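Narrative of accomplishments. A recurring question from our advisory board has been how the design workflow behaves on a single, concrete structure rather than in aggregate. To address it, we present the structure tokens for one chain from the evaluation set, followed by the sequence designed for it. No filtering or post-editing was applied between the two.
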């Protein structure tokens, strides 16, 4: 198909070739609202770009072809073969992929200047094509993305060109910002922190405790509690030890490590012993625990080296849990390094 008027007046052969190619590609297509032949839209965008002062031929050709990849059967390769890779790259940037709004946002952020110029005048021409208020409302989101992108990237001249078309349709965006009502802040009641006395009294009532002086509080079963600043802890006695029981322990709770004789002094002794005995005496793994062969509760000496052995955590857990054949195997046999089992005599 040959070039139709008014395109016959185009003197540049490359531009004429691009117009003819676009005309063939868009054959049979018409504009959605005006009903005009579709080719008049890319030609109008080309004229706007040229009037803006663009003289780069690749940009001008791309402005004519900007819809061929997106709206016709023409491929990137075909465009590249006929008009060069640079033109094809610009047209490819102008071809929507995936979600329209998200792609335009990405394009305005990353696309080259040539594509940004063409996209701006493409949108200006679309807005001037007419259409209902519903159609204009549908276009507002992506138009605002373009407008915002131009501002962020410093294309002030292009932004001004877009605003000339934007204002009659959507109004002044700056005034619209001022008219937006600020979000009302919900009134929140100031937080009043309870004093320690109020907190203690509240918990006393909740737990049914009675204060009998000297910081001693008792419940109805005569269990003793002490106030720990933020909450009460039950105090129990186990043998010679007096232990503060946490809320997770029952009345048979275990005394703390310090109360069982494993305080700071023991920890220093333990570290020195493990440094000299780095391997578990049972399986050869890295030792983590200094174990008493005969527990202190049964009269075993605390720091007697004959009563000590270095164990890994797993072997110690097996011994402590009483799962090692009821500890019958702990009489000097070596364990199998793979199974960590012991032969009983």
């Amino acid at each position: 198909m040959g070039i139709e008027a008014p395109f016959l007046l185009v003197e540049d052969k490359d531009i004429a070739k691009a117009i003819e190619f676009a005309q063939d590609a868009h054959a049979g297509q018409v504009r959605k609202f005006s009903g005009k032949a579709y080719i008049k839209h890319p030609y109008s965008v080309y004229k706007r770009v040229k009037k803006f002062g663009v003289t780069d031929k690749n940009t001008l050709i791309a402005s004519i072809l900007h819809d061929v990849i997106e709206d016709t059967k023409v491929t990137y390769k075909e465009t590249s073969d006929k008009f060069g890779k640079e033109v094809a790259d610009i047209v490819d940037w102008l071809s929507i992929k995936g979600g329209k709004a998200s792609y335009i946002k990405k394009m305005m952020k990353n696309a080259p200047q040539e594509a940004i110029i063409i996209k701006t005048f493409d949108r200006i021409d679309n807005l001037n094509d007419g259409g209902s208020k519903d159609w204009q409302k549908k276009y507002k989101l992506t138009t605002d993305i373009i407008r915002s992108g131009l501002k962020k990237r410093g294309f002030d001249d292009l932004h001004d060109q877009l605003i000339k078309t934007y204002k009659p349709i959507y109004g002044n965006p700056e005034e619209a910002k001022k008219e937006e009502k600020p979000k009302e802040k919900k009134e929140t009641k100031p937080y009043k922190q309870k004093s320690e006395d109020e907190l203690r009294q509240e918990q006393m009532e909740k737990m049914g405790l009675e204060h009998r002086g000297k910081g001693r509080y008792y419940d109805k079963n005569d269990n003793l509690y002490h106030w720990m600043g933020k909450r009460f802890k039950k105090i129990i006695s186990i043998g010679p030890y007096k232990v503060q029981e946490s809320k997770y322990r029952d009345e048979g709770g275990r005394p703390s490590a310090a109360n069982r004789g494993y305080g700071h002094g023991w920890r220093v002794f333990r570290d020195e012993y493990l440094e000299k005995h780095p391997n578990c005496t049972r399986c050869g793994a890295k030792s983590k625990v200094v174990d008493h062969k005969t527990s202190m509760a049964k009269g075993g000496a605390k720091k007697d080296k004959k009563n000590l052995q270095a164990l890994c955590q797993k072997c110690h857990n097996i011994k402590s849990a009483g799962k090692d054949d009821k500890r019958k195997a702990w009489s000097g046999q070596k364990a199998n390094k793979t199974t960590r089992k012991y032969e009983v005599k």
